[in-house]
Amino acid sequence: MSPRWEDLRDGRAVPPPPLVVGPVTRTDFVRYQGASGDMNPIHHDELFARAAGYDAPLAVGMFQAGVLATWATNWLGPENVRRTKVRWREQVWPGDVLTCTGKVVRAFEENGEHKVDLELLCTKQTGGIAVHGWMTFVVP
Amino acid sequence: MADKSSVGSEGVPFEVAIERGKIREFARATRSTHAAYMDGERPVAPPTFLTTQFFWEDGVEGANPWHLVKLDPQRGMHAEQEYVYFGPPPRAGAKLVARSRIESVYDKDGRRGGKLTFAVMVTEFRDASGTLVAEARLTGVETERPPEPAASKEAP
Fold it and tell me: pLDDT of A65-93, one tens digit each?
């Protein structure tokens, strides 16, 4: 059940619990790579990743960005997305546990539509920030 | 070394077909089973789905101008990504026409010293009537030195 505009505007809407994903695996990375088409071997080829100076294949940044967006679309609806922006901070490695959450930072009207801006965070079990995100949704 | 003369370069237009099975695969890979992605003949595309533009773009000679930026593969990485939708996101069955251009290449001083070079590629997605449906903004960054391998320990 989607939250009402009045509750989002007045800060009464309670966001869903964080989306916790992991420990993430090489299989998660490969599955995302197949879905997205980014087949850079640094995300799945152990020998290639080590030759580049890493201990393991690192996650595709767009994988954790996509999971972060999933938390938000579960709440406010995929059809209502109007903007998504992500900035990557720390790398994600096999074994990391990702916690995705966010909050409404602005509720406004534009061109006769109700909209909300969200600020989102994907953090690791270390407390480090993997992805900082911003999204805009219309609220029908 | 990033090539600032790439700014303004534009690729040739390319088709991007939004497909139901691809949406389902992408949604599941990003841990979503939302009914809007799974049900019906024309599910909506997830917020970051247009990253699949490269499936289409890389198959068309002259479509992708990103290589003209010449970011060093050892020192380059994806820094930011943005998707703006000018109405509801596209649905399966949509046939979009996209075009990419290099918007800017600029330097900034890094927080830990050293110069950072940013490059931005914008891709516009239009429907059959020419209406702008979405815009993607890819920001890449190149550091002056390669990243520290010590920062790459696998989680326990």
Answer: 999 999 999 999 999 999 999 999 999 99
Q: Do B29 and A56 touch (CB under 8 A)?
A: no
Query: What CATH code is carried by the domain that includes residue A107?
Result: 3.10.129.10
**Dist. CA A94–CA A97, nearest whole Å:** 9
Taking CB atoms and an 8 Å limit, are B29 and A91 in contact across chains?
A: no
3-state secondary structure of A116: strand
CATH code, domain carrying B100: 3.10.129.10
Tens digit of each residue's pLDDT (9 = 90 or more) over B82-108? 999 999 999 999 999 999 999 999 999
Contact flag B155-A81 (C-beta cutoff 8 Å): no
- Chain B residues with CB under 8 Å of A62 CB are 48, 51, 78, 81
Q: Quote the pTM value.
A: 0.94
